[in-house]
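Case study 2.
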Amino acid sequence: MQPRRAGNAQGIDVSHYQGNIDWAKVKADGISFAFLKASQGQTFRDSMFVTNAAGARKAGVLVGAYHFIDAASTDAAKKEAANFAAAIADAGGIEAFQLPPVMDYEEVQDGMNASNVHAVAMAFLTEIERLTGVRPMIYTYIGFASNFDASFSAYEVWMARYSTSPPADTAAWKRWTFLQYSDGTVGDVRTGGGRKVAGINGPVDLNEYDGTLEELKHAYRHDSRDGGNDNGGSGDGGGDEMTDAEKQQMADLANRVAALEKLVNMSGNQTPPAWANDAIAAAKKSGYITTSNDKGHAELVMIQMLYNAGLCNEDLVAFFRSFSAETKAAIDALVNGKGNA
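Prediction:
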């Protein structure tokens, strides 16, 4: 992954362990953003979350919230997402946060394997996005990152590595969006030297964004609830106007949908064809749907309909593969000729 860079925006992440924070002093000391612990598990709320959110905003620090995962099942993961969403609502709602919600995943429960980690992580990520309308981000450390396969590259990563050298590439990520480079006692040092941050008694985690403060201000926009936030990474966030390439992509998609409508009954009340069973089974296993009548069911059936109608190009195949290991297996079965009608 890339090294730190002069001019990158500097930040911290905090919880109740930091006690009372003088956010005005934090801001004056060159800290531009802060991730705040909101919750953990299905019921725990950080006692300083609401106070920290209000104080940081008042001082002009960009704020985000994170949740520490304890779940060992997809059902538990969804309940944890509900706890996280409720905590965000109590602190002003998702519109009051300039940075995306974060899933902090760095340890697993006894007996869990990589497949369990994938399922729990994806269940949490999809549920918190459904509840908040904003695509979340993943926090993890370089040693744990091997648990995430390439399907998680659809999510930006906040990587922890306490070193003067950058993290190694992983299966999911070749670049970090945020880097936690010190816990305040070990690791790299701030741009001006040292690890102390004014306004905080004791050590605090130090972070860097892959871009300037101005770029960070425009990177994440979730002023609507439709999930269409502009996650621009280290770019400038762009404007509201579509580019010619984007307009062409929309036109191509409209043409595909029009062609599809000629082939299938779009009323939503038809009996799924037999060749859709593999996709339905995979979707149930991965937690995307709970019954064959779930609202998400039509979308999973459409994956196979698109493919069998010859409308699923390479970009769409790659997109569907990014959902989860189970859904990747279903689309791979189609591509390999095992799921055709």
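Residues 254 and 307 are 16 Å apart (CA to CA).
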